[in-house]
Amino acid sequence: MTDHHGDFDSVSGRSTTGHEWDGIKELNTPLPRWWVITFYLTIVWAIGYWVVYPAWPLISGHTRGVIGYSSRADVAVELANLEKIRGDKMVALGAASLADIEKDPALLALARAKGKTVFGDNCAPCHGSGAAGAKGFPNLNDDDWLWGGTLDQIMQTIQFGARSGHAKTHEGQMLAFGKDGVLKPDEIVTAANYVRALSGLPTRKGYDAAKGEKIFAENCVACHGEAGKGNPELGAPNLTDKIWLYGSDEATLIETISNGRAGVMPAWEGRLDPATIKAMAVYVHSLGGGK
Amino acid sequence: MNKPVNPSEPTSEDDYGPLYAARKKVYPQSVSGTFRRIKWGLMAFCLGVYYFLPFVRWNRGLGAPSQAVLIDLPNSRFYFFFIELWPQEVYYFTGLLIVAAVALFLMNSVGGRIWCGYLCPQTVWTDLFYAVERLIEGDRRERMKKDKSSDPMRLERISEIVLKHSIWLLIAWWTGGAWVLYFNDAPTLVKQLVTFQAPMIAYIWIGILTVTTYALAGYMREQVCTYMCPWPRIQAALTDEWALNVTYRYDRGEKRTSVKKAAELRALGEHAGDCVDCYQCVAVCPTGIDIRNGPQLECIQCGLCIDACDNVMAKIGRPTRLIAYDNDINIQRRQDGKAPIYRIVRARTVVYSAIITAVGGIMLYTLATRSLLDVNVLHDRNPVAVRLSDGSIRNAYTVRLLNKSGYDRVIAIDADGPVNATIHVVGVDSVTPDRPMIVIPRDATSELRLLVTAPAEVNPEKSIPVRFHVTDIGLGEAASATDNFVSP
C-alpha cells in the first residue's frame, strides 16, 4: 500500500493506513492468508450446499437438492429402525394375555413404560398426566370404575370407548329428570338429599327420607340398583361410596338429576395398535385402581 | 511524521526485540547416577503398571467380568480387584481425588515437584522417547551435529529417522491400545482388534492416544511442562522454605573458576568456588535450563543435574552434591557457619498426612461396611394421594431395589408408618398378607410400584413418616428407606 506515502512503521516494517488516534497509527496489516482462503472456501462450500441440499424457498415449495435429501425421510427411517428394534418385544406383548403380562416382570415393565408414554400422548388431556382425573373425568388411580376395573374391562373401555359412536361402545346415560319433566323441582331436591344420605353425607333440614326412598325406587333403581350400588354394565355409578365424578354437594347433584350426564370416552381401536392398547390397559390397571 | 527507516535495522535494539522467542530444541545428554537410576526404576514401574494391568485376571464368579481393573461403561460398573462400584457410589472417586490432591501437596512440602520430575506421564513418556532417540541417533553431540548437518540425507541417516519414528509410533500405539483395554475384557478386545472386529470407538480412542502420545512425548516435550501444564504454577506455589528442592549450592559453588585456579587459590588458603563452569548440569537438563540461576518455573526437579554435577565433582576430587536436594534455609545457615537442618515432620506435612489418613480411612471403612442390598423410594407426585371408594387413603411409591451381590435374592418388603396400613406391589401376589416377596437377580436393580393403603379414620394427620424395610429372606440382610404418607 503506497497510497499513504511516508506513513511507514519502522518497527514492523509495514505501511500504515494513515489513520491516527492520539499519536497511535493503524498498521495496514493484511488478513492472514489462511483466513482469506478459509473464507473463500466457505463461499464455495455454500454454493455446493445450495445445489446438493434443499435450500431455496420457491413460491410454492423449495428446491429439492440434487441428492434428494429430506429430514422427514430421515425421521421415517429412524422410526422404522426403532420399530424394528422394539419389534420382538412388542410382538411378545401383543401375544401374551393381559393376566400373563402382569405376572411377567419384564413384560410388565415394558407395558408400563409403553403405556405411560402413550397415556401421556393420548389420555392425559382429559385424565391428567398422572391419571388423577378431574371433575367429569374419572380418576384412574382409585378403585371406583364406571365400566368395571378388571384388566379385560379396562381394555374394553379403551378399545371401544363410552358413548363414542363405535359399534361396540358402552352405552347408557343418566336421564335429565328435570329437563324432561319427569320429576318436579322439589322432588329433585329430595332425591339429591336421598343420594347424599346413601353415602353417609349430611342431609338438608326437613328432608323427607321416605319420600326420597319412593322417588329413588320409582326412577333410579333401574340403573343404580336397589341399594344404589350402581351397575358397570350401564356405566351407572355406585352412589354409596366416597367417590363422586361430578361432585357430591347438593347443588351439583340437583344439576346432575335435572340435566343428566353423559360423559364421552373416545374409542381407541384403530387409532392405536392392539399391542399398544394392551400396554395401556396394563398401565392403567397397575396405577392401583385395578380390581 | 517519521522518517522511513529500513525495517531490518531497528532504531534501538533495546526497545524493539521480538516479543516471541522461538523454541530452542533441547538435546539432553545421557547421564548416570543415583537419580537417573531412580527415574529408570519409576519409569519401568509406571509403564509396567499401565501396560500390563488390564491383563491381570480376577475371579468374581460365573457371569461377572474376570478382569482385575475394568471400567464397564455399558453396564455402569467399575471393577477394581475385590471392589465393585455402582454409579451411585462415584463419591469414592471424589475421595480418591481428594487423597490424590493432598498427596501431591504432601510430596511438595517434603520434596518439591517430585510429581513433575519422576511420576508425571509427560515426564515418563518423554524420558522413554528420549531414550529411544539416544539409542538410535546417539548422544547429545551427535544429535546436534546430525540436526545441523546440511549434507544431503544419506541412506544411513534416513533409516535412522524412519526407525526412530517407527519405534515412537509403536510405543504411542501401544499406549492407546492399553488405554482401551481398561474399558473391555482385554483378551477378547485384543483378539477383536487384531481381526478388525472391535467396535469403531476402540479404534478411534487408540488413534487419539497414539497421536497425542506421539506429539506430546516426541515433539512438544518440555513445552508441555512450560506452556501447557498448569501444575508448575500450582506446585511452585505449594512449595515452602523447608521443602527440599533441587538447588545449586551457590555458597559452595561461587565464584566459578577453573580447576587449576581453584587449586591455586586454595593453596593460598583463600576461598574458591567448586563450580568449574563445565555446563554438564545444563547439558543433561530435559527442559534446557541452567539450575545455577536459582529456582525457576521450567525446572521439573528430576535431579539429573545432580547426577551430572556429582560425576564431575568426583572426577576433580571435590565433594559431591554441589547441586542437591536442599532448601534456602540451609544455604543461609551454611553461610552463617551453622549446621544445616532438615525437617520433614512439621505442621504442614503432619496436617496433610492426617487428611490423607482420615479420607483414606473413611473410604476403607465405608468400603468394608458397604451394603450389598439397598432400597430407594420415591413418592408419586401426581396424584400424591388417592381416596378410595370406601374412604381409605392410598399413596403410591416407586421403589427401586438394588442387589449389588453376586447371587439372586428373595426380598420381602414391609412398611411401617400409618396404622393398619396394607401394602401391595403391582404384579406381585403377597405370600402372606401385607408382605410382598420379590426376586431380584444378582448385580441388578428392580423397580416396583408399591401401594400403601390406610383406613381414613386412623390417619387424621396430613403427613405421616413411613419406613420401608427390605429383607433378604435367606441371609437376613436388610435395608430401609423413609418417605411420607400423605392424606388428600
Automatic annotation (TrEMBL), chain A:
Residues passing through the membrane, by range: 34-56
Binding residue positions for heme c 2: M174, C220, C223, H224
PROSITE patterns xref list: CYTC (PS51007)
Pathway(s): Energy metabolism; oxidative phosphorylation
A Gene Ontology molecular function term of the record: electron transfer activity
Alphabetical keyword list: Cell inner membrane, Cell membrane, Electron transport, Heme, Hydrogen ion transport, Ion transport, Iron, Membrane, Metal-binding, Oxidoreductase, Repeat, Respiratory chain, Transmembrane, Transmembrane helix, Transport
GO biological process: proton transmembrane transport
Keyword Disulfide bond listed: no
Cofactor(s) annotated in UniProt: heme c
Lineage top rank: taxon: Bacteria
Cofactor annotation comment: Binds 2 heme C groups per subunit.
Gene3D superfamilies hit by this protein: 6.10.280.130, Cytochrome c-like domain (1.10.760.10)
Protein family membership: Belongs to the CcoP / FixP family.
Subunit structure: Component of the cbb3-type cytochrome c oxidase at least composed of FixN, FixO, FixQ and FixP.
Protein known as: Cbb3-type cytochrome c oxidase subunit
Organism: Bradyrhizobium sp. LLZ17
UniProtKB/TrEMBL annotation, chain B:
Start and end residues of each 4Fe-4S ferredoxin-type domain: 266-294
GO molecular function terms noted in the UniProt entry: 4 iron, 4 sulfur cluster binding; metal ion binding
GO cellular component, one term: plasma membrane
Regions crossing the membrane: 40-58, 90-107, 161-182, 202-220, 350-368
PROSITE patterns: 4FE4S_FER_1, 4FE4S_FER_2
The entry's keywords: 4Fe-4S, Electron transport, Iron, Iron-sulfur, Membrane, Metal-binding, Transmembrane, Transmembrane helix, Transport
Gene: ccoG
InterPro entries reported for this sequence: 4Fe4S_Fe-S-bd (IPR017896), 4Fe4S_Fe_S_CS (IPR017900), Cyt_c_oxidase_cbb3_FixG (IPR014116), Electron_Trans/Redox (IPR051684), FixG_C (IPR032879), Helical_ferredxn (IPR009051), Ig-like_fold (IPR013783)
Name of this chain's protein: Cytochrome c oxidase accessory protein CcoG
Gene3D superfamilies: Alpha-helical ferredoxin, Immunoglobulins
Pfam family, one: Fer4_5
Keyword tRNA-binding part of the UniProt annotation: no
